[in-house]
Amino acid sequence: MTSRTMHTARDRIVRALTVGAATATLAAPLLVGAAASASSAPAPGRFSTTIDNPYLPLKPGTRMVYRTTDGDEHGREVVRVTHRTRVLDGVTVRVVRDRAYVGGSLVEDTRDFYAQDRRGNVWYFGENTRTLKDGTVTSTEGSWLAGVDGAKAGVVMEAHPAVGDRYAQEDAPGVAEDRAKVLSLDAHATVPYGSFDGLLKTKDFSPLEPSVIEHKKYLRGVGSILEKEVMGGQERLVLVRVTHS
Known about the structure:
This protein starts with a strand and ends with a strand. Mean pLDDT is about 85; it is low at about 1-30 and about 35-40. It has a single domain, classed as YmcC-like fold, CATH 2.40.360. The protein is built from one helix and 18 strands. The protein has one helix spanning about 10-15, and strands spanning about 1-5, 15, 45-50, 60-70, 75-90, 90-100, 105-115, 120-135, 135-140, 145, 150-155, 165-170, 170, 180-190, 195-205, 215-220, 225-230, 235-245.
């Protein structure tokens, strides 16, 4: 939900699903906090597709609808946690579908892949993303999969986030290198879904787009409710409704 990488418009607007990192070197992501770095992910048997992290619960059948704006452009995002799974880098992962619409037309269709380790950290194992125009796929830029071409999974949400934590969400050099830092555990936001205090707030960025910084806010039991570019753009995403089936 997800949201997200930041190298496509969809990923800068939504990646309903993320917090990230700073690194000592791009080749060896450093994580400060409860989780482990992408270079030392748990063994495959220590992951589960039951993802119940309070800040990023991904229960199959959940559907989240977001309103998006980018200057004068308006759209919506529909994120659905599917019942589907697949195996990536030896790990069975949950498939989450993320569709972006502008003016009623589908402009991006992405499958994101997640799993949760035994400590409760949520890991991001990649994405298959398709950019469309008039129903035709024009690009798959930004797609990556853990275990392919040297890419590794990264932590997208800590089990126990703390202010100051920094971590790498993605480790696909030159393709997807999102990072984030925990800024607050007591943030406030008002969105169409409601008005809330006690939110997790993160700063998200990428060395691939150093001029872009995004702030995201997460509600316990729901996930991402607000994402906003604070440098390098005007994109904004707000949660409108959540349904379960």
